[in-house]
UniProtKB/TrEMBL annotation:
This is Glyoxal oxidase N-terminus-domain-containing protein. Residues 581-616 are annotated as: Disordered. Residues 1-19 form the signal peptide. Residues 596-608 have a biased composition (Low complexity). Keywords: Signal. The keyword Secreted does not apply. Residues 453-559 form the Galactose oxidase-like Early set domain. It holds the Pfam family Glyoxal_oxid_N. Residues 64-447 form the Glyoxal oxidase N-terminal domain.
Amino acid sequence: MARIKDVSCLLALLASVLATQELAGKFKIIGNSGVGAMLTVQATPDTVFIIDKTQKNELQVGGHSAWATAYDLRTNTIRAMDIGTNTFCAAGVILGNGTILHAGGDLASQYPMDGINGSIDGRRRLRLLDPCDDGNCEWTDRADLEMNSPRWYPTLEVLEDGSTIIMGGSVKGAYVNPEDNPTYEYFPSRGADRNMTFLARTYPLNLYPLVWLLPDSRLFVQADYKAINFDHVNNIEQDLPDIPYSFRVYPASAANWLTPLTAENNYTHTVNFCGGVSLTKDELIGSVDGPPALDVLQVAADTSCTSLNPLDAKPVWNDFEPLPEGRIMGSAIILPDLTILILNGAHYGTAGYGDLGSASWMTAGASYAESPTLTPIIYDPKRPKGKQWSSDGLSPSTIPRMYHSTAILLSDGSVFVSGSNPNSDVVPPEDTKYGTEYRVEKFYPPYFKAARRPRPTGLPDSLSYGGDPFTIELSSDDLFGDTKNIKTIMVTYIRPGSSTHAINFAQRAIKLQWSHKMLDNGGVRLSVQQLPSPTIFAPGPALLYVVVAGIPSEGKFVMAGSGKLGKQVVRPLVLPLVDVEPSASDPGSTKPVPNPSGNPSGNSTASSSDDKSANISGRVASPATLAVVSLLTLVSLTLL
Ligand SMILES: [Cu+2]
């Protein structure tokens, strides 16, 4: 009996492995968010926290409609969470101590709701959550925890001490900024609001300014067609060239990301924008609180992609391969193999929505966007020109993800895709073209083809700034039985960020250098560098992956820095010792063969296009087949 039970367990395991392999490149509907997923964030292994605006969701909590849930990834079930203030179009980050901060929002219940479903003015509110997987954490949403001033559509970016800057926003909601708040402040507070000229100069196209922390502690900031490097401590703005072709900030909502930071690219910070809306401010805006000045449903989304190194001596915008199809509201997700996935969004229009009937051209319900971009696309700069963007092997979603959609990378390497609600309240899908969407999907990138994922051991719980390397081990099976795969190993550390409005606040990735030593059992021990500095990778939790032959391990949430807010200890970075190449005749060799790059995979975005490791489909098939064969062998051995 025991043997039959073992066999059935193995067969069940094999079936589930094969079923997951089948999902590579596809979407799968996994559950229901309970509330509109306007913002999603994950900071513990098994739970995604979801925040909506105040609206009449059927799900109830505390005697009113819920507008926040915790989504359990183990069971695909939700728990309603009680937030009393209006969270409409706020922003979120994970602070350096692992606490989630959600800041800003809109006026109390300005939408057609009954008193029971009303909310409190959320424009100044700071909501905090110490995330958990056991169902025992709740949002702190208290009147004594507020910002200096009201902020609807503010931007958050985590700073090198794990605190956050809170930048800009509007005093109240509209299509674009109707009543500017051109100031910034911090959490924890550093005192009164400080004026920011750039925000005044980019009004009214300055909602959710696009911001990244730079290695010199300044911030790159982009809004309207303008960009600056911003010394927020001394309030000094350095003008950068205008961004070409189209505006990228909300409501153009171009896909945007920071190039993964690697030793090969010298941790050069490169900001990237793809898509958007190629209109001038005057063409787009009639009045700041009215609908767009023209029929935006006829305005095709831009295809251009452009990037900038803000700290270059003479920064210039560099075009790179355009998108094969124009896209607004695309969410750019840095995957564990450091390719860039873009999904969600639309072919025409802009972000936002209006009151039905407020413009004669409104034929997509309340939505200012039309024609969903259902097919995801992956950018890999190591592929040949003309193929760097590719949807090969990727299937479209069946669910339009229009305005108020979200996407975040999960620890298993899949992407949690949710939201879409270009409506002022809950509207069932049967009542309008783009209704309130509660269905949650996972998108499975191509590496899910693998039958087995690497299972590194010895992953640390935290990374320091500088200091000695840490040690991890991979087995022979983790190398898919082939020591040649050692040269493909990447250790990547990714902060998925907090997703809202096609922005993942604080998303960034770094590739860590390593050296290796063969073990007698055919495995390998890696010595891996710590983080270079808190301005390059700010404190707080992020996912650590080990990628072999393009197949990532499960990511582990690992704390960057001390786990506390405040100045971080930074020590000299000790790089891993000179690498030791494996030798076919002597796998345990310690022959000191220098490794010129310090990391043999060479997987930086600046790498040459002939690096075969970039070919995802090519590198997945072999190990996947091997692993299925070994599992089948195990099954047949058990049967004997
Ligand atoms: Cu919004």
